[in-house]
Amino acid sequence: MDVAIIGGGAAGFFSALSVKEHHPEAVVTIYEKSKNLLSKVKISGGGRCNVTNAETDIKLLAKAYPRGEKKLRKAFYEFNTQHTMDWFESRGVALITQEDGCVFPVSQDSQTIIDCFLSESERLGISIKLSCGVKAINPNEEGIELDFGEWQKTFDKVIVATGGTPMRKGFKWLEDLNLQIKDPVPSLFTFNMPDENITELMGIVVKEALTNIQGTKLKGDGPLLITHWGMSGPAILKLSAFGARILSECNYKFKVQVNWVNEVNNEKVAQVLEEIIRNESNKILANFRPYLLPERLWHFLIDRCGLSQRAKWSEIGKKGINRLINILTNDIYQVSGKTTFKEEFVTCGGVSLDSINFKTMASQEYPNLYFAGELTDVDGITGGYNFQSAWTTGYIAGKLG
After folding, report:
1. 3-state SS, residue 361
2. Start and end residues for every CATH 3.50.50.60 domain found in the chain
3. pLDDT in tens, 314-353
4. The whole model's pTM is what?
5. Which neighbouring-strand residues pair with 206?
6. Which CATH number describes the domain made up of 2-185+344-398?
């Protein structure tokens, strides 16, 4: 059996290795259009490669995917995060789990993952062809012909794992097969706030914040990082992922509401502030921080709601308490633009999930054509989830079921 893998990235390599695991006799070739292999693996996680997440509850794991949750929930029963960790560790890659659930190689070096894939490919006899882009796919009675421009070749099975692309035209060669394509738009990005002076607090992290996009049901939670251009961190990145299409439609101009204290019940916040007034009435407002907020942020918020930092807690009165409650739980900022999260470019969109049989990852129309990875309309939040969907879909596609 002659099998072609289009794409030398994470999903492409995992697909190829899965083919050889399930069909040792198969002739497998990876075709990569560029001169570089596994380039996204190389830069991910700041060069450390966040290979997966430690979440083992399938339902909770699937909820990390704004697009593909239902389809992946079933797929994860076949290959999930625990399978991923076992796979790497059984091949000599020691892993470590951080407090936030992100899983990295103990080496803290993405090259460890790349070396693992390359050595496994060599051991199993997988061929790798660089600078070899596919121009067109032509299914025929004999199999699937790939057009490389100056030459063509027919394969028994083909797995497409070319990754995401920012422009719809990047999917034209697949649209020519009448495959349904969902428009690609950016996912996982940070918020730019050029007109907001909170950027002066760059570097401050609030460990547990709640966020939402004004006028929508979009919500995020987790650490929030203030940057020199705006806001980042999981509480923001979740909003960008789940709101990818909505935020694209409004041209990345919207208002984000921030709950700095991770408390949705305003009465409880009022109780905390009133207790401070009872017990610390003579303390200066600036010197006594509720919820142990970062000092610079607390001073910024006092100024933002029009109170004096030098006032005593006993002097702010009911109006002052209400102002503080509002700024702590419903602080609003204007967003005008986005920035790619680190160097990790993720898109939503791609080959429609309706075009794919997720039990096999095969095309509904062309049974010998398979798909894996971000090329499909599947994407996850930050934390190792996007690589996990690449491993899962690559593993299933490689079974060639």
Report:
1. coil
2. 2-185+344-398
3. 999 999 999 999 999 999 999 999 998 665 578 899 999 9
4. 0.92
5. 224
6. 3.50.50.60
